[in-house]
């Protein structure tokens, strides 16, 4: 692919770069294909905790020195953990990419995980956990995924549990790194005004730790049946999710489902936004969502509203689901959803960081770069008959909530017995 180079080093590390000559900056990510999905109930939260601990000092740098070495050059360091991977990344001016590479390499290979820092950071992450508990619009998605992914590690929250966070010791962290941060799970990905051959030289110069070649672990997907869940929480609003599992990134059927989601509830012109917020004025937040992993996704509708309006909102949602099952969408509405989806994707790629993220995820999930043009082509090929077909498949038991068709999670101060919509 033009301007993109991929090299697998002898040790198994994959280096990928996209050169954009007219820029003066870069985004550089050190990716490990490991996340909360690779944990157990006993160490749930350790991947995210490690994301914090890698910034807390190496054999030659304090936490402050790590930040100063990048920020003094006008750059930026950050990281995030998902259920399937962890990314440590930096941004800066192109002439400073070697320094950013060296600092990230130092963090990945020489972090000391001081017991004193572990104790301090556990308190910080517990505060972060409390923030999620105090944010019902975040908490309900954790509860929903714990429910629909019951029986699988995908159901565990990324942040973990307070009990686990208080129990992590240096030996636990060192053991997890040794077993999971392996060469075959390691990707170095950069985008911007960069030189691929220089990246390879930096890797040869600065990557000297003997990571394991592989840990041989395979991710499994074994799911149990889920049922409605009520979460008692002192909130002003009722928070509500109706959804189920569907196709993941590896399945070509995911793209038509994504278009379906946009028609149903993504954007201000979507059916649910217009019906529930604009026409009836009973919810500020209303949207559909498609949250995807390699082999599975969650698809559903989220809203927050007051206790008096939640029954009506649920009824209106079911009416819209029935309409999209029973009648083909118009070509005009279909084209509008496609253009919204394509436009959002293309505009996001004006950021080097977003381009780097897309390239890395494509390599991790597919072992190759899926071109933007190919994705756009597949979106444009989605037909109205496909939308109706997938709507009937996803909402396969008309207006019924039992038998695993659609699962509700309701978060509110008191248990609301919401019967199925008529």
General description of the model:
This protein folds into 2 domains: 203 residues, Metalloenzyme, LuxS/M16 peptidase-like (Cytochrome Bc1 Complex, Chain A, domain 1); 184 residues, 2-Layer Sandwich (Cytochrome Bc1 Complex, Chain A, domain 1), CATH 3.30.830. The chain is of the alpha+beta class and 422 residues long. The protein has a 6-stranded mixed sheet, with helices on both faces. A 5-stranded mixed sheet has the order 7-11-8-10-9, sandwiched between helices. The termini are far apart. Helix content is 43%, strand content 18%. A hairpin with a 4-residue loop joins strand 9 and strand 10. The protein is globular, with a radius of gyration of 23 Å. About 2% of the residues have low confidence. Helix 12 runs antiparallel to helix 14.
What gross morphology would you assign?
globular
- Domains, number: 2
Largest sheet: 6 strands, mixed
Mean pLDDT: 93
Percent of residues in helical segments?
Answer: 40-55%
Beta strand count: 11
Uncertain ranges: 397-404
| Spatial order of the strands forming the largest sheet | 1-2-6-3-5-4
Named at the architecture level, the CATH assignment of the largest domain is 2-Layer Sandwich
The CATH topology label of the largest domain is Cytochrome Bc1 Complex, Chain A, domain 1
The assembly state of the depicted protein chains is: single chain
What's the helix-strand series?
A: EEEHHEEHHHHHEHEEHHEEHHHHHE
Structural class: alpha+beta
Number of helical stretches of at least 4 residues: 15
Distance between the termini: 53 Å
What is the assigned CATH homologous superfamily of the largest domain?
A: Metalloenzyme, LuxS/M16 peptidase-like
Strand content: 15-25%
What radius of gyration results from the CA coordinates? 23 Å
* CATH C-level class of the largest domain: Alpha Beta
């Amino acid at each position: 692919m033009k301007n993109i180079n991929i090299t697998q080093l002898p040790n198994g590390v994959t280096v990928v770069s996209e050169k954009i000559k007219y820029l003066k900056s870069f985004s550089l990510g050190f990716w490990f294909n490991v996340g909360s999905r690779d944990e157990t109930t006993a160490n749930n939260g350790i991947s995210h905790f490690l994301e914090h601990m890698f910034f807390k000092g190496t054999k030659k740098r304090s936490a402050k020195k790590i930040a100063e070495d990048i920020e003094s050059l006008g750059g930026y360091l950050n990281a995030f953990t998902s259920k399937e991977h962890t990314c440590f990344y930096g941004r800066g001016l192109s002439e400073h990419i070697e320094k950013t590479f060296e600092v990230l390499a130092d963090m990945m290979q020489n972090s000391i995980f001081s017991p004193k820092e572990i104790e301090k950071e556990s308190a910080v992450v517990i505060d972060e956990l409390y923030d999620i508990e105090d944010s019902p619009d975040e908490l309900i998605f954790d509860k929903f995924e714990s429910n629909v992914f019951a029986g699988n590690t995908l159901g565990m929250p990324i942040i973990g549990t307070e009990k686990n966070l208080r129990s992590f010791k240096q030996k636990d962290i060192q053991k997890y790194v040794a077993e999971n941060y392996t060469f075959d799970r390691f990707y170095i990905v950069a985008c911007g005004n960069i030189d691929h051959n220089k990246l390879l030289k930096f890797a040869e110069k600065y990557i000297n730790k003997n990571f394991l070649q592989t840990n041989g672990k395979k991710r499994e997907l074994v799911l149990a049946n889920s049922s409605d869940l009520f979460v008692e929480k002192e909130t002003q609003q009722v928070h509500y999710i109706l959804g189920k599992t569907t196709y993941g990134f590896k399945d070509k059927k995911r793209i038509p489902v994504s278009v379906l989601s946009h028609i149903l509830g993504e954007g201000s012109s979507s059916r649910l936004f217009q019906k529930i917020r604009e026409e009836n004025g009973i919810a500020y937040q209303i949207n559909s969502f498609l949250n995807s992993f390699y082999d599975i996704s969650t698809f559903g509708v989220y809203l927050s509203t007051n206790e008096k309006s939640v029954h009506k909102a649920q009824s209106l949602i079911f009416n819209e689901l029935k309409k999209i099952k029973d009648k083909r969408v118009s070509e005009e509405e279909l084209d509008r959803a496609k253009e919204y989806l394509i436009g959002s994707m293309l505009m996001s790629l004006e950021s080097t960081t977003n381009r780097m993220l897309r390239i890395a995820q494509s390599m991790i999930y597919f072992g190759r770069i899926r071109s933007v043009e190919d994705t756009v082509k597949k979106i444009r090929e989605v037909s109205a008959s496909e939308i109706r077909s997938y709507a009937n498949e996803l909402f396969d038991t008309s207006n019924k909530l039992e038998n695993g068709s659609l699962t509700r999670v309701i978060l509110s101060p008191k248990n609301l017995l919401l019967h199925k919509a008529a």
